[in-house]
Amino acid sequence: MRLLFCGTPQFAVPTLKHFLAQPDFEILAVITQPDRPSGRGQEVSFSPVKQIALAENLPVHQPEKIRAPGVQELLSGYSPDAIVIIAYGQIIPARLLPIPRHGWINLHASLLPKYRGAAPINWAIVNGETKTGVTTMRIDAGMDTGETLLQREIAIGANETAPELTTRLSELGAPLMAETLRGLAAGTVLPQPQNHSAATMAPILKREDGRIDWNRPAREIFNRMRGFAPWPGAFTTFRNQTCHLLGESVSKEREPASEELKSGSQGIKNIPPGTLLLEKDSLQVVCGHTTVLRLSSVKLEGRKQVSASEFANGARLRTGERFGNT
Which regions in the chain score pLDDT beneath 70? Predict the structure, then answer.
């Protein structure tokens, strides 16, 4: 089966490697995003997909815009049976969709129609989902609205972060994509329309998504810490400085915390959300719904990340100090 592979980040790499190891698939060329400067030094770097393609001596094409004149002729010239597209980073114009015989086949990191959009892994974790998966689909002119082909479901770990789940889903998707293409060629995989009324969205992340609202229950805040790692992270303010936090929920919603924290007869019911509590060897924060978050690390703006206890010792916390009150 003659394939073009269209993808950019690490998430696409396991599938590309899987295809290269299968004798019944031929990767004709790779299409990936143009090289971009990254990091503090703004050095130009190759995408993970391009690095694999060069190592395998595959032709690489990097159009600035895939809708640009000449791209249609370029793709058509390969006469692909299918174009595999995974996290490429650009919308494919409708006029390019008929080029491959079996269509453009996408690997999406959710159980469609749930979590259509740019950040399905992040929002699944943020929203407290306990399961997710990958879906292969034939793309159309909409945003993740095309007919689905195959799906695989996995559980989300209670403490799993977005990068950890991303790695697992990328590995899960590689054999599923091969199974999908073989099924399309054999006529055993039949496209199914999505139930659009059941669709939910996973919009691109914004920096402000990471700002902590201490009125939320601790578990919700913890889920946002997991889901927004590594960017935008979960951040708040402390003494007029921005600080990024990591931690974990240690009390259930509406559960009295006085026994747990030993913080006096009133417990935390009358303590404002965002208040820091230094308890024995741990630093905790009062959250909404009478819940508590235990901090594991703190990174103040312009400084290195330190443990919560190191932060508490260095800050010399005063009674009643709060996060996010500036």
Answer: 251-267, 326
pTM given for the model: 0.93
Residues of the chain with CATH 3.10.25.10: 207-315
Say how far apart CA 8 and CA 180 lie, in whole Å: 21
- CA–CA gap between residue 105 and residue 86 (Å, rounded): 8
- Contact in structure between 109 and 131 (CB atoms under 8 Å): no
Topology, domain 207-315 = Methionyl-tRNA Fmet Formyltransferase; Chain A, domain 2 (3.10.25)
The Cα 189–Cα 138 span in angstroms is 12
Can you give the pLDDT at residue 281? 78
| Whole-number Å distance between alpha carbons of 31 and 84 | 10
Q: Where in the chain is the domain with CATH 3.40.50.170?
A: 2-198
**How far is 229 from 119, CA to CA, in rounded Å?**
12
Burial class (CB in 10 A: 0-12, 13-18, 19+), 273: buried
In the CATH scheme, what is the homologous superfamily, with its name and number, of domain 2-198? Formyl transferase, N-terminal domain (3.40.50.170)
Cα separations in angstroms, 299 against 58, 221, 236, 308: 42, 17, 10, 9
Contact 146, 107 (CB under 8 A): no
**Cα–Cα distance, 272 to 325 (Å, whole number):** 10
d(CA 276, CA 281): 13
DSSP character string of 147-201: PEEEEEEEEPPTT--HHHHHHHHHHHHHHHHHHHHHHHHHT-S--B---GGG--B
Q: What is the pLDDT of residues 24-63, one digit of tens each?
A: 999 999 999 999 887 777 888 999 999 999 999 999 999 9
Distance in angstroms (rounded) separating the CA atoms of residues 235 and 295: 12
